[in-house]
Amino acid sequence: MFTGIIQSTGRVTARGKSSLVVAARLRGLRAGDSVAVNGTCLTVKPPLKTARLAFDVSDETWARTTLGALAPGDAVNLEPALKAGDPLGGHIVSGHVDARGKILELAAQPEGFARLRVSLPAPLRGLVALKGSIAVDGVSLTVSALGRGYFEAALVPHTLAMTNLGARRRGQWVNLEADVIARYVRAALKNG
Questions:
Q1: Are residues 107 and 142 in the same domain?
Q2: Are both 139 and 71 inside the same structural domain?
């Protein structure tokens, strides 16, 4: 489980058929630990090396997330799994990507803020609510506007500086994860 509060960014150094290697400075990790990479839960594989994390990646994960488009040099958001007693600063994030969305707009706003507009894929419609939470590339964001086929979120200066969202551009794809509580509510209403 994660919170959507990014601890660090890293850079992809290698990508194989079933592996991803990221240069990163996350401390205290062991082989077998979970790390959200652009919002996708991956397991750290041995051997651990200083400033380097390696992960096994399945064909389904490559296909279902934006990780399949990563290349050496690309920046990724990193968050280690939540530990008991850690503060829940964002919202509950599972690291299970629901869909990919396309950045429709990333517009600078006064005071160093930005407005992010992302397409809202059909599987997420009904799971995203105004003032609700959504994870975009693993970053916990509050939905500030909803329209036909899109949502918007305000990016604060800290988020722009500490995540890869500040370097994103129109037309790029991002991983999206709906709020886990919204998923369970929809399932209960559908099956109840």
A1: yes
A2: no
The edge-to-edge listing of strands for the beta sheet with 8-15 is 40-43, 34-37, 75-80, 8-15, 19-23, 52-56
Q: How is residue 27 written in tokens?
A: 């401390």
- Last residue within a domain, chosen from 22, 51, 80: 80
Rounded distance between C-alpha atoms, residue 80 and residue 29, angstroms: 8
- CATH code at position 52: 2.40.30.20
* Residues with pLDDT less than 50, the chain: none
Rounded CA separation 81/92 (Å): 11
- Report pLDDT digits (tens) over 129-180: 999 999 999 999 999 999 999 999 999 999 999 999 999 999 999 999 999 8
Domain hosting 142: range is 99-191
Residue 159 lies in a domain: yes
pLDDT at 187: 86
The SS3 assignment for 104 reads strand
Beta 34-37 vs 40-43: how paired, if at all? antiparallel
The two structure tokens encoding residue 106: 């990333």
